[in-house]
Specification:
about 300 residues, TIM Barrel, 12 helices, about 45% helix, binds zinc ion
Length: about 300
Amino acid sequence: MSQEIEIVEVGPRDGLQNENTILDTAIKIEFVNRLIDSGVKRLEVASFVHPKLVPAMADAEQVMRDLSPHPDVKYIGLALNERGFRRALDAGCDEINFVMVASEGFGLRNQNATPLQTADLFDRVMVLANDDKVPVSVTISVAFGDPFEGEVPTEILEMLTARAVSAGASEIALGDTIGVADPWTVAKTIQRVQAVSQGVPLRLHFHNTRNTALANIHASIENGVRIIDASCGGIGGCPFAPAATGNVPTEDVVYMLERAGIKTGIDLKKMIETSNWLSKQLGKELPSMLPKAGIF
Ligand code: ZN
């Protein structure tokens, strides 16, 4: 197999946002620089949400100011609403990732919006983005299950994907926010969503809450997905399962892909070093397996 998979590193945003330890801005910058040195080319670095709601992201603007520009690296900012979107634009993000929500229970609690309202909001923010020519991806959160309402009908994902595509999204991500997906459902869901995405690339975002993330990534790649989110060390946790592990660990994903001859452009040794460094900064053992077992 000579394939290439693009890893979008979400540790500095999705990861750190859900950790108990809040890192100083300077440490966050060092984290990002270490990730870039490990070969990462696209990273979520900040979330433009209200600092009272997510204290770990209160320095979003400062992070963007302190990061050094790299011609071949894209810094992604996350936005849930118009205000956050404007902030992300003003901060000079290379890309913005806008969050739609697949289910009302989670949507109303997370961003005070229903699935349809997030699609309407996206139409409005895309008017701002078009002035700026910044690529905007959409992550559909709780795509495989909602902690309050349970199963999410695939029709909702098809509807939101169609809306995102017609408004001009550069990429669509399906997010397993609470880590409940299985590989067979992932395969079926991707096929259905691809049928309405009109060639706009799909990205898949898995949490390892119930230990199914690597299997879900395998199913995604087998179904044509070429962009995968992952988080160094597997940091992140899940606010709805406090004792559970976090995002799928970047080093474990890269290891699995490399063994299959699939290229990611990431230097595994450096990624493990970054994971060990991060473990010290957060003062805890991280969930990823590769730093413990070593490279084969
Ligand atoms: Zn996530």
